[in-house]
Specification:
By secondary structure, the chain is an all-beta fold. The chain has strands spanning about 5, 10-15, 20-25, 30-40, 45-55, 60-65, 75-80, 85-90, 95-105, 110-115, 115-120. A hairpin with a 6-residue loop joins strand 5 (about 45-55) and strand 6. It is globular, with a radius of gyration of 14 Å.
């Protein structure tokens, strides 16, 4: 069974930081694409950051970010621990949302989603 488990959400003040983690369990693919999405109340789910690795034999990878988080958020992946992280600095109230981890095994079209972790930023 393949599943994702997120952790690290919470409530912080504007300007503070949080680190989200997503543990991938049961994934056997070497090439891997993963990402973080978020959804605020009354809004559509939006992409936050993506991470694409190109095989266990290669250290090459690519990342991308939404304009709204560029320079403040950093996405990383620990291959050995099968963990995807999102370091969020200089948080703003508009970052308040439920954050979801998503995986595309083998960078294909199949998607696996985590249950989400809540991030709340107060001004």
């Amino acid at each position: 069974e393949m599943r994702l488990e997120e952790s690290g959400g919470g409530s912080v003040q504007e300007g503070e930081s949080l680190r989200l983690s997503c543990s991938s369990i049961g994934f056997k693919y070497s090439a891997h694409c993963m990402g973080w999405y978020r959804q605020a109340p009354g809004k559509e789910r939006e992409g936050v950051a993506t991470f694409a690795s190109y095989g266990s034999e290669s250290s090459a990878y690519g990342t991308s970010y939404a304009d709204s988080v560029e320079g403040r958020f950093t996405i990383t992946r620990d291959v050995g621990a099968d963990t995807l992280s999102l370091q969020m600095n200089s948080l703003k109230p508009e970052d308040t949302a439920m954050y979801y981890c998503v995986a595309y095994p083998g960078c294909g079209t199949t998607q696996y989603w985590g249950q989400g972790t809540q991030v709340t930023v107060s001004s």
